[in-house]
Hints:
The protein is mainly alpha-helical. The chain has one domain. It is built from 6 helices and 2 strands; from the N terminus they run ααβααβαα. It has helices spanning 8-15, 20-35, 41-66, 74-99, 106-133, 137-188, and strands at residues 36-38, 103-105. The protein has a two-stranded antiparallel sheet with strand order 1-2. Helix 2 packs antiparallel against helix 6 (137-188), helix 3 (41-66) packs antiparallel against helix 4 and helix 4 runs antiparallel to helix 5 (106-133). It is elongated, with a radius of gyration of 32 Å. The model is unreliable at 1-7 and 198-212 (pLDDT under 50).
Amino acid sequence: xxxxxxxxxxxxxxxxxxxxxxxxxxxxxxxxxxxxxxxxxxxxxxxxxxxxxxxxxxxxxxxxxxxxxxxxxxxxxxxxxxxxxxxxxxxxxxxxxxxxxxxxxxxxxxxxxxxxxxxxxxxxxxxxxxxxxxxxxxxxxxxxxxxxxxxxxxxxxxxxxxxxxxxxxxxxxxxxxxxxxxxxxxxxxxxxxxxxxxxxxxxxxxxxxxxx
Length: 212
């Protein structure tokens, strides 16, 4: 069987065979990116520098809560409590990632989505309660604008994360399909004319020694 009988599609596949190693490498990289990713050196430094600041903020908010005056409005106490819990959750998440070698797994991303989503909703609710307690209508309107911006930004960030993951999944599936086509082309490809296939009758028979 010669290459003359191969279809144009099969010929294109056979010409692409040398790229299979590069495709497999890209496939492994993209598949690994679906499971985990690593922080860049700049992100690691920012994380380690941000942890002390995060701890100071938590300590400051906690101190204000413990020493709060009885006359302090309930809305402000709720806002400070929500801020302290959110900062604590964020700090623990970052510390866990940094201590594990700056590896962010898919479960870590899911946990951050929950932390961010719940924290943002709680913060918006606390700010709304503060806005309702304000006497100045303009200040209340500005605070409502801040709440709207926070919620829109949170939803936009969540959608960007979902889009990024969907693009990665699509890329991995396309690469996997391309690798399957390459494997199929190698399986059905005709033998090269430079290396003729062996025929059964061309196989040398074993030489049996003659008895003296």
